Amino acid sequence: MGRNPQSSGRLRPVDLAREHGLSTQAVRNYEEAGALPPAARTPSGYRAYTALHVAALRAFLALLPGHGHRTATAIMRAVNEGGAEEAFRLVDESHALLLDDRRTLRAVENALRDLEPPTATATTGTGTGSGTGPGGTPVVPGTALFIGPLAEQLGIRPATLRSWERAGLVRPRRDPLTGYRVYDEADVRDVRLIHQLRRGGHLLEQIAPLISQVRAAGGLAPLEAALGDWRDRLSARGRSLLAGAAALDAYLHERERD
Fold first, then answer.
1. What is the CA radius of gyration of the chain?
2. Cα separation of 154 and 169, whole Å?
3. Where are the alpha helices (DSSP H) in the chain?
4. In this predicted structure, what is the pLDDT of residue 35?
5. What is the pLDDT of residues 166-216, one digit of tens each?
6. In whole angstroms, what is the distance from residue 55 CA to residue 248 CA?
7. Which residue, of 28, 182, 202, 209, has the greatest Cβ tally within 10 A?
8. Are 161 and 148 in contact (CB under 8 A)?
9. Which of 199, 217, 187 is nearest to 113 (CA)?
């Protein structure tokens, strides 16, 4: 049987590894990265870990799910180098990111709730049936919208739609004969969502990944169905941050006793 890391005075890498199902190389890698404090060496050159390293490894592994590998490593390295304030700042940043993600989720939920289905009479020309587009171009009822009618439908300027296009948020095709922008059903969906999020105060760079998610999901309905999973992931992240904070606090107490 292996040693009990909590009761042994001098521990080997394997003693720390077994508790968490890790390889001994992983433990050594964590030490080299600064996630564990430097280990003393035996006269033979072997690493000799202590209860402090046990607490450090537990803290690091608890921090991983909520903060990610890079930030968890940076937090532990800061603590091990005597920079607890820097560690606290990094922890605060992760909580702030989670809060931003929660606000984004709420904004998407509100935007989807506020979106009304497009009217069945919307067309490329006037939004009331068959007609012509810019320059008298014939249009097919119920297919797509040119920039002017779409902007008018939303109560915004065509220049606003062009700025969203420059930001990569919407990608209307061009009519091969006239060169005019043509917004198909998916484009109109994206524009309406962008419009709602902009009204909620979100910046274009914040909206871009959301539009990408809509496109990846294949529309608003699949995205709406995925919001529950998104919410669950945020809750799990919040719980992970709490668990990581508790383990980090235990490690800080262990360092004070050491």
1. 28
2. 16
3. 13-20, 24-33, 51-80, 84-114, 147-154, 158-166, 185-199, 204-217, 220-257
4. 95
5. 988 888 999 888 889 999 888 888 888 888 778 767 778 878 877 887 777
6. 8
7. 182
8. no
9. 199
pLDDT tops 50 at residue 7? no
- Name residue, tokens 């049936």: 129
Cα–Cα distance measured from residue 41 to residue 13, given in angstroms and rounded to the nearest whole number: 12
Give bridge partners of residue 174 from the DSSP assignment.
Answer: 181
Q: Which residues contact 205 (CB under 8 A, 6 or more apart)?
A: 167
Residue 79 has pLDDT above 70, yes or no: yes
Which residues contact residue 154 at a Cβ distance below 8 angstroms, ignoring those fewer than 6 apart? 191, 192, 195
Q: 183 forms bridges with which residues in the sheet?
A: 145
Q: What share of the chain is helix, strand, coil (3-state, %, to 5)?
A: 65, 5, 30
> Exposed (0-12), middle (13-18) or buried (19+): which is 165, by Cβ within 10 Å?
middle
Asked whether residue 252 carries a pLDDT value surpassing 80, the answer given is: yes
Dist. CA 249–CA 255, nearest whole Å? 10
Answer yes or no: are the C-beta atoms of 210 and 227 closer than 8 Å: no
C-alpha separations of 6 from 16, 23, 52, 154, 222 in Å: 10, 19, 10, 65, 49
Residue where the block lists tokens 């450090």: 56
Question: What CA–CA distances, in Å, run from 156 to 153, 164, 196?
Answer: 8, 12, 12
Please name the residue ranges forming H helices in 139-201. Answer: 147-154, 158-166, 185-199
